[in-house]
Amino acid sequence: MALIVGIDLGTTNSLVAYTAGDGPRVISGARGQAKVPSIVGLTDNGLLVGDPAKEHLVRDPSRTIYSVKRFMGKAIADVAKELHYFPYALQEKGGVIRIQVGEKTYSPPQISAMILKELKLRAEAHLGEDITKAVITVPAYFNDSQRQATKDAGLIAGLEVLRIINEPTAASLAYGLQQNTQGCVAVYDLGGGTFDISILKLKDGIFEVLATNGNTHLGGDDFDRRLVDEVIRDIDTRHGVKVEVSPELMQTVRLEAEKTKIRLSDEPQAHMAVSLPDGQGTYERTWSRDEFEALVLDLVEHTMTPCRRALSDAGLETGQIDEVVLVGGSTRMPLIRSRVQELFGKTPHCDLNPDEVVALGAAVQAGILAGENKDMLLLDVTPLSLGIETMGNVVSILIRRNTTIPTSAKEMFTTYVDGQTGVDIHVLQGERELVKDNRSLARFQLKVPPLPAAVPRVEVTFLIDANGILNVTASDIRTGESQSVQVKPSYGLTDDEVETMIRESFQFAAEDIKARQVIEARTEADAIIMATEKALQRATDLITAEEIQSIHHAIEALRVAKAHDDHRRIRAGIADMEKVTHHLAEALMDATLKEALESKKLSEVTD
Amino acid sequence: MSEHTHQPESGRTRDLPMARSMCWHCQSEMTGEYFCGRCVKVQPLSKELDYFTCLNLPRKLNLDEQALEETFYALSRSFHPDYYATKDEGEKAISLGNTALLNTAYRTLKDPVQRAEYLIRLEAGSAKDIRTSPPADLFDEILELQEDLDEFRSLSAGESDERRQELLEKLQADRRTLEARKAQMEDRLQEQFGRWDALPTEAEGDADVQTQKDAVLAGMQEILSNRTYVKNIVNDLVAATSPTAEPGRSAWH
Fold first, then answer.
1. If I label A539, which of A84, A347, A520, B62 is the partner at 20 to 30 A Cα–Cα?
2. A10 backbone dihedrals φ, ψ, rounded to 5°
3. Pairing of strands A183-190, A323-327
4. What percent of chain A shows pLDDT beyond 70?
5. Which residues of chain B neighbour A163 with C-beta distances below 8 Å?
6. What is the CATH number that goes with domain A4-218+303-379?
7. Preferred mutation among B42, B69, B103 to probe A, highest tally of A CBs within 10 A
8. Of A343, A284, A283, A342, whose CA–CA distance to A310 is shortest?
9. Is A160 touching B (CB cutoff 8 A)?
10. Which residues of B touch chain A, with CB atoms under 8 Å apart?
């Protein structure tokens, strides 16, 4: 039977893994790295995904989409507070965010599908067979809309999503397989954009989730932002440069902040340097780990409350937890390790690479679904209570949070007035009493035969399947007839929209490796041409007229090469450019250095 | 073909009421197992199946929790959708339905309060809801407490701090009293569990036994409705007096 791959579709990075005879393993790309940055560049030349798109980010921020997972299953109002961090324009249609790129708009599932396709291609290249089936992971605390959006992304990418599985539970499968643990395990999963805590009971191959909690809007991105905000203020104070007005500079600062954060996990100090545009010098600062930790301390504290709630829902005290497992790149931060250790009173495990463990677990689950692993079975829960709106704008709960899935609840509906032919039903998810404080999932109308009031009896079954996704069916108790229910999602794409997006996905698909290489080469050529033309403006006093002439020739030659579908020819053109501009680059560097030194001398004098 | 002759590893033979007397797939006669003996397809559980029968337990209230968990895990291995991902749509749907039923049965029986409420509904023969009612002897105190709670909520922090502090202390004392009362009720419920379990199970038509059964059930019902009432008030008190508590509802029934 066809191989099923496991995919970790992350906020910052995504991975694909599969299970071979000797266990799960991640698939690395051509450059040997397993992580694919979850970044998509929609350039004039075509589509870039992963590392090439990340390189493209600072050059063309408005057409480079990152952290799209934060928008899955969301409306604009949900992300209003962070809009200014994103260099691309957002709109909304039918309760779904649309990202504007040039003339076109893309829904988050479409962008996610581009990342999934890249992983699919990578797996196909590695395994030498067509990949059409996948297990995709989501944060355990994802609601129905966010899960459905992830499933839609799979469909658009040409993947049948056999199972949506929760990230912390996936990680527990990978750990369980390795260590054959028994007892109660807490999985603390802090990724790029989301936080989950899951408490599991492991016994004889059964992985029973007792409780889960989290925050789908808290992760490494937020830690970066704290540092970004600080750097922006600092650059303004010291250099009088407003970072916010330049999307390119904003992205440079963001990436530099991310790097600094990562370095501070291993070192007590990290040096940061951001070159400011138009000869305004370089911003430099050394950050200590203490300084950084002070900036993010409250965010780390925010993860503690969900941990306590999950423990309480599981009916356990911290002392009853046998093992603590750390998952997600953000758990490399020493502050997080020590806070988790303090809370649970146990040294947390981090033996498996926290970036890869979720994808590995997804591959283990893929093996279970394929029937190759009969020893392990995951019994997961729904993270949020599900209910319907009743009189007085109050939610009546049908399925409680932390109920083992699949699970179903039945509810009987009738009419209030004679001859009424429809009953409107509003489904919500959340823990609060009032409708307005919960997440609206969907609305639908039950069809009822025109009869006196209270005579019709329609039984509605709300079923949450093993993916944590709601399915609704209804049947007329008097006639025994079942009726199809047309559910309109509050924050999701309609079936027709998904269909259209599947068709459209073929238009913007860089299907084969060759086409992708051409796109990447062209984009790089564009960047080098742009940079060279800019440099030439300052070149007159620095290099000879002949040199300038030959650079102009090289630019023309590269433009010609770019028009052909031969990436080797474009690469050769780029190499030529680098050769002829070598002297110019050196001269510019010297000039900048001299300027910097002179301005430093000047400031020493004025001090 | 081999699949006609051997049973799947997880398919233990046990008497569970099935929805149909014939296999939905190959129409061969069923013999009380949840996999067809001929085509090995999984069979749908009967919708009328009660949770005790489903989990292979006697209709008792003190139950063997370890046996409950073991049966639940074993049946999960038989029915869970993860083991049917590559099967046909018919089997997938049955796996989903059976697992949903199994999960509800396990969740209900695992929790003593839900277990008792379920037993009462089961024995009453209809889906009779257990209403919440205040314990008669606490009626006046609860009335006063509600007034205090309303006043406390209406006072925002910063204004009339003295009165607020006074009410807070009073409400916290009330909370301790009610929590003790709730624990007391749970002890009384436990006594009723013992009385129920001591009654003979095979006594169809024995009017005397039936009278005793009804008395125990009625006693439990009263304790449960009082307990739910007290529990709701305790939740309200927790929500109002400790700001870090989970908003709204508690996880357990």
1. A520
2. -95, 170
3. parallel
4. 96
5. 82, 85
6. 3.30.420.40
7. B103
8. A343
9. no
10. 9-10, 73, 76-77, 80-83, 85-86, 96-97, 99-100, 103-104, 106-107, 244, 246-249, 251, 253
pLDDT at A281: 85
Q: How far is A175 from chain B (nearest CA, A)?
A: 19
- Residues A341-359 pLDDT 10s: 999 999 998 888 989 999 9
What residue ranges of chain A are covered by domains with CATH 1.20.1270.10?
A: 513-606
* Crossing angle (nearest 10°) for helices B112-124 and B161-198: 60
For residue B248, give the nearest of A402, A431, A466 by CB distance: A431
Considering chain A, tell me which residue range(s) the CATH 2.60.34.10 domain(s) occupy. 384-490
Q: Which residue of B has its CA nearest to A464?
A: B100
Is the CB of A407 less than 8 angstroms away from the CB of B100? yes
Compute φ and ψ for A284, nearest 5 degrees. Answer: -130, 140
With an 8 Å Cβ cutoff, is A465 touching chain B? yes
> What are the tens digits of pLDDT across the range A592-606?
777 766 665 555 544
Q: Which residues of A touch B99 (CB under 8 A)?
A: 406, 466
Rounded Cα distance, A185 and A195, in Å: 17
CATH 3.30.420.40 range(s) for chain A read 4-218+303-379
**Nearest residue in B to A434, CA atom:** B248
* CATH classification (class only), A513-606: mainly alpha
Token readout for A210 is: 């007792």
Q: Which long-range contacts (CB under 8 A, 24 or more apart) does A315-319 make?
A: A315/A210, A316/A184, A316/A199, A316/A210, A318/A343, A318/A344, A318/A345, A319/A345
pLDDT digits (tens, 9 = 90+) for B184-196: 989 999 998 999 8
Name the segment(s) of chain A with CATH classification 3.90.640.10.
Answer: 220-300
Average pLDDT, chain A: 89
3-state DSSP assignment of residue A298: helix
pTM value is 0.85
- The interface predicted TM-score of the complex, written ipTM, equals 0.83
Which residues in chain A are contacts of B11 at CB distance < 8 A? none
Share of residues in chain A with pLDDT > 90 (%): 56
Higher-confidence position of B20 and B240: B240
In the A/B pair of chains, how many CB contacts fall below 8 A? 77
Backbone phi, psi, residue A105, to 5°: -120, 150
Nearest CA in chain B to A203: B73
Pairing of strands A488-489, A36-37: unpaired
Residue in the structure block whose two tokens are 């060759």 = A514
Q: Which amino acid appears at position A107 of this protein?
A: S
pLDDT of residue B14: 52
Q: How far is A404 from chain B (nearest CA, A)?
A: 6
Using CA atoms, how far residue A536 sits from A540, A542, A585, A586, in Å, is: 7, 10, 10, 13
- Whether residues B248 and A400 touch (CB distance < 8 A) is answered with no
Which chain B residue has its CA at the smallest distance from A404's CA? B103
Average pLDDT over residues B169-175: 86
Q: Shortest CA distance to A469 belongs to which of A365, A386, A369, A371?
A: A386
CB of A310 closer than 8 Å to CB of B246: no
User: Which CATH number among 2.60.34.10, 1.10.287.180, 3.30.450.20, 2.40.50.180 corresponds to the domain A384-490?
Assistant: 2.60.34.10
pLDDT band (50, 70, 90) for residue A1: low
Answer yes or no: CATH 3.90.640.10 is held by domain A220-300. yes
B73 contacts on A by Cβ (under 8 Å)? 203-204, 206
Min mean pLDDT across A144-148, B21-25, B176-180 is at B21-25
Compare A470 and B206 and report the one with higher pLDDT.
A470
Beta strands in A301-413 (DSSP E): 323-327, 377-379, 381-382, 386-390, 394-399, 403-404, 407-413
